[in-house]
Amino acid sequence: MAMLEVSRLSKSFGELTVLKDINFTVDKGEVVAVIGPSGSGKSTLLRCVNQLERANGGRITVCGSDMMTTNEKGKAVFADTDTLRSIRLKTGLVFQNFNLFPHMTVLRNITEAPTVVLGMSKTDARAKALELLKKMGLEAKADSYPCELSGGQQQRVSIARALALDPEILFFDEPTSALDPELTGEILKVIKELANDGMTMVIVTHEMAFAHDVADRVVFMEDGYIVDEGTPDKLFGEEASERVKQFLSRFNNFGA
Amino acid sequence: MTNEQIGTLFQLMLQYAVPTMKIFALTLLWSIPLGMIVALLKMCRFKPISWITNIYILIMRGTPLLLQLIVAQYSVPYIIRSDICPEFIRSALGGIDIRSEAYTFNMMLIAFVLNYAAYFAEIFRGGIESIPKGQYEAAGALGFTRSQTFFRVILPQVVKRVVPASSNEIITLVKDTSLASAIPYMEIMYIAKKQVPTYASLLPLFMAGAFYFAFAMVLTVLFSFIEKKLDYYR
């Protein structure tokens, strides 16, 4: 079953067209890594699907409900506010810069959305948050403030925060790019565990070895197009297109 | 001056410190919420509203508070007498007794509130705009509505950021209340000035000065306490 279907998606900022004709499907339980050079539109794709940007054309369907379509005149038509909100609750997003709420404790960062948005009781939300923190190895940090945590810990809290709403599909926008190299490992480990749990995930990343390891499918984007896609073995192997090989050759840490 | 005279004077000054504190408290009570509204209006995406709000802020910040206080006192009689004043406004304002104490006080308060709201608005706007875009995006991605985002995520962070600038403004207000004496409105400054020839002494002015100083000190201590309280996160 397709959790996310994107077809003919286009997005421009003024004169600059960032996404051109993107076609992209993610099935339930699938882990998709999106790679490509900077400015290729990877993050914009994620932002359009997560309603942080409004695409100009095409169609986005999340868990069977249309988030946006395009009418005969070629104009983008968005779903009504209630549908958009219900879609938002099915998707979770983890940011490059964590974007934790600095004035709330770690625990409150995680319980706030379930209590306020879903109307969950404080006790239930707390129990769930503590369980998630335990999974992230951060139960001791529940009462700390984000500023007291390392970058890797903050990112794990933000993953827990996204998971607290039980999303059907979780998106990561370069989750390790703001971290020191020695801290990226702990995040990649968490994502790997989520993959083992069967979580549907789309991960924009520059960690090629990780993409190879964890993804069921790798998508290579450039200049607003999906240039190549396939299993990690295909994309990181001999069958890949010349452009992908050229791009990957710059990552000397990739040993496949 | 005899000790008895000093005692009488001190009591008189204390008595007139009350109207000073009244101006101070009521101005804050109204100008802080109004300032928040003005800040939001200035950030309104519908440009005409933003422009009109900006003109209001420019006038309030660009002209003396003393002038605004005097204009406010004269406003009602002049509006009523003006040829271009529509009839319904004239009849609405006609019932106001411009010689009453309430008129003097209310018009003065309006001038103080409008003036301070403009300053607070700029402080609040700066505070709101300093919150990173990522906070809105994170709240949005978690399904918060716009008002939930504002009240739960943005505003608490804004409060912390605007406390230092607001405390500065509030301490300035302590001293600006003395402008009311020019209206004239009988508060501590008015009475101090009036007592100078009576006693042939500067003591009334020193007492008034000591009052303002003590008031400002109390607020300084209070705000440094609040700043410390809000220092639980960076």
The CATH homologous superfamily of chain B is termed: MetI-like
| Tertiary shape of chain A | globular
CATH architecture label of chain B = Orthogonal Bundle
- As residue ranges, the low-confidence spans of chain A are none
Structural class label of chain A? alpha/beta
State the assembly state of the protein chains.
heterodimer
Poorly predicted ranges of chain B (pLDDT <50, ≥5 residues)? none
The CATH class of chain A is identified as Alpha Beta
What is the end-to-end distance of chain B?
Answer: 55 Å
Largest interface (CB within 8 Å) is between:
A-B, 28 and 21 residues
The fourth-level CATH homologous superfamily of chain A is: P-loop containing nucleotide triphosphate hydrolases
The helix content of chain B, as a percent range, equals over 70%
How would you characterize the overall build of this protein?
The complex is a heterodimer of chains A (256) and B (234). In chain A, the strands form two sheets. A six-stranded mixed beta sheet of chain A has the order 7-8-9-3-10-11, sandwiched between helices. In chain A, strands 2-1-4-5-6 form a five-stranded antiparallel beta sheet. Chain A is α/β, with parallel strands linked by helices and 256 residues long. Chain A starts with a strand and ends in an 8-residue tail after the last helix. Chain A is built from nine helices and eleven strands. Chain A has helices at 42-49, 81-90, 106-116, 122-135, 151-163, 181-196, 208-214, 232-235, 242-248; strands at 2-13, 16-27, 31-35, 57-62, 65-70, 76-78, 91-94, 169-173, 200-204, 217-222, 225-230. Chain A has one domain: P-loop containing nucleotide triphosphate hydrolases (Rossmann fold). In chain A, a hairpin with a 2-residue loop joins strand 10 (217-222) and strand 11. Chain A is 35% helix and 27% strand. Helix content of chain B is 81%, strand content 0%. Chain B has a single domain (3-232), classed as MetI-like fold. By secondary structure, chain B is mostly helical. Chain B has helices at 3-42, 47-62, 65-81, 87-94, 101-129, 133-141, 146-176, 188-199, 203-229. Chain B is flat and about 70 Å long. In chain B, helix 1 runs antiparallel to helix 8 and helix 6 (133-141) runs antiparallel to helix 7. The model of chain B has no long low-confidence stretch (mean pLDDT 93). Chain B has nine helices and no strands.
